[in-house]
Every structure is written in C-alpha cells, then in structure tokens.
Predict the structure.
Amino acid sequence: MLILRPRRWAKTTMVSMAKFFFDITASDLAHSLFAQSKLSQEHPDFVASRCGQFPVISVSFGECSATTWEEMKTDLVAIISRVYQDHRYLIETPGFLYDDERRKFQAILDEDPSALYEFALERLTALLHRYHKKRVIVLIDEYDQPVKEAFENEYFKEAITFLRSAFTGCLKDNPYSSLPIPIRIIPCAHHSLRHLEKGLLTGVLRVAKAGFLSGLNNLRVYSLLNPQFADKYGVTEAEMQEALAFEDLSTEAGAVRDYYDGYDTALPDVHLYNPWSTLNYLQDKKIDSYWVETGKTDFIAKAMWSGPLEMREMLNTLLDGGKLTVPVQVDLDFDSLTRRDTLWSILYFAGHVTGRRVDGDDVEIRVPNREVSGELAKMWSRAFSALGVGAEYDKCILALLQADPLSLERELNEILLRIVR
C-alpha cells in the first residue's frame, strides 16, 4: 500500500505509530501506548490480534539529500546499516545465524563497501521471519525522496538501479527458495513460503517508469483523490475547531481557515487543513507561512518556466484565484517533467493546488489557501530569477510606470529571447 500526501502531512508520524503498534520486540510498550486509544475502544479484537505481534522493518528516506550518486549511495548504505542495527539481536542470539549469514550481517553493520546491500533488506525479512516465526511488516517512509534528489542532480539511472534492487526485494512475496536459507529450518509449517505480511510506503509522488515500484504485487495507491483514508491525514474542520477552542483561539477561526484550510478530498463533505501549519500556529499563536520553508521546490520551479507559454498563463490564472480543469495522473514520469499534464500532477500531489475529479483523469484545481498562494508566487519569482532575466523584468516594470513603450518593448524582447522555447 502506498499513501501519497504532500510534505509535512503527518506521514512520518503515521509510520512511527504503525511501527510502535506492530513491533513484536516491544510488545509491552505497544500495549501500554494503545491501551486507552480510540482504536482499542472501538476495535478491541483487532488490537488484541495485531498489537505487538509482528517483526517490523522501518526505513525512512526523509533526510536523503545528495548532489552526487556517490554521496547518495553513502546515505543509503547508512540507512540500511541502521535498519540492521535495529535487529542486531539476530546476530547476538547464539546459534541462530549460520557462519555465512553472520559474516554478511556484520558487514552490513560495519557499512563494509563490499557488502551486498542490494539484497540486504530482502535477506533481513527472511531472517526475521525465521526468528519470530511470523511474517514481517515493512514500512518505508518518504520512499520518493532519493528519486527526486537523483532527478534534480542528474544521477537518476544509478539511483533507480540501486533502489530497485535494495528496497523492493523485501516488498515482494519472496519464497524461501530464492534466498540461501534452508527450508528445513522453517519452524512453522502452517506458514506459507512468504516473508511479507504487509508493506506500507509513504511519499509525495508515485514515480512511474523508474522501476522502483515495478514488480510489486497488488500495490494499492491512495491519494486525496481516493475516498479511502481521505480524512485520516490532515486536520478536519471539527478537529480544528476543537483545537482552537482548547487554546482559546476560536475568534481566530476565520483567519486560520483562510490561511491553512481548503484542501479538497474525494469525500465531498471533507476538506482539510494543513497539519504542519496548524500545529505551528497553535504553538506560536500567530498567523504566518509555516509550510513554505519545509521542502525543496527547485525542480517544480524549473518545470514551471521550462514548460510551454500556455502553462505560464494558466498558472497566472491560478495565482489570481481562478480555477482550471486539467489532467492529474497518479503515475508520473520525470523524463517528461515539462509536459503540461505532468506538471499539473506534480503541483497537485505536492500540495500546491487542490481539487476534485470531474471526469476520468480531469480534476478542477485551484490554489487551496493564502499560505500556498504566497509560496507559488515566490516559486514563480525564483524561477524567473533563475533564468537570469530579473534585471530586464525590473526594467519592464519601470517602463510601464514611466509610460515608455519603446523601453518596454526592448526589455520584453530580451526576456522572450531567453525563455521562450
């Protein structure tokens, strides 16, 4: 299952909660954390049968940031090593690992460059299944972060090759026979020859044609365009009003709604507030732009100006408060980033526009609130400056103010020569 939400929309919090809920190595903690929860009250049988009952592999790519493939691979190797450290009890249990397994496990812990990281997580799921006699839950947070970094810094092919090998093997229905683990030692005959119980990924975009998710069995993708889980991320109107009342800020409800509300979902009666911004507002008790500083948007800004002239005119319509009906596709291809349908999809899934489906892939989009409108305007300005025409733009404004048509025409021609493709 892949959950798509904009950055800072509580995806990491949800993954962390899932880890604590399922983790068999901290079963007592899991039960104590969820004993008084709404989940326990409404679904006691589910909690009794699932809470603290499964080995968990939890991986986060959220902090991956590298300008070269060598730097990114170093980051990914460190991430895999940390996952192995979470389960070092496997190597510390006398007699559990075979000699070759012990050597491979230790090499991963040591971040040995000769270790086979491409198969490390697939191997770990098999070891955890064997040790606990239960299949494994795999959680991967911000799975698309290294993909975006690779695209922006031009090492896309190398990154995808590694990621496909290292991080999808543990998400497939791997039979024991595909790994060097003798079937004779499987201690539980009623289990099928699978290591994976459930897999959950979170991210902003689903990257198509990259191969990272290719071959996964029965991958279900849920975005705000799907009714499932539509109200489980973000802050609902009722939750916002309750929070404002608790903080004695009910008189500010209108301003909070204007700045942070406005995200449509597939459920017609459900609209959402940006959770990051609202939590910061409740803490600071000050209306401000909190979400705009939380992520890199350079590749979006570049695409905004690399696309056709029609695209820029449509973006101006949105910045002026208008609506557009555009195609929004879940599967994105970074190789065609400047295509109109691709850019609209990126803007939608990144949270810069919102809307509901009207027909097929077509979505009627708009800018959700004042906070996002301000960020889009800044992105537009950054993209313009990156083209090296900021000085000409200022001269255009001056020519307009001075009613100087000849100067205006000269500077506009200079701008067009640089940016029109």
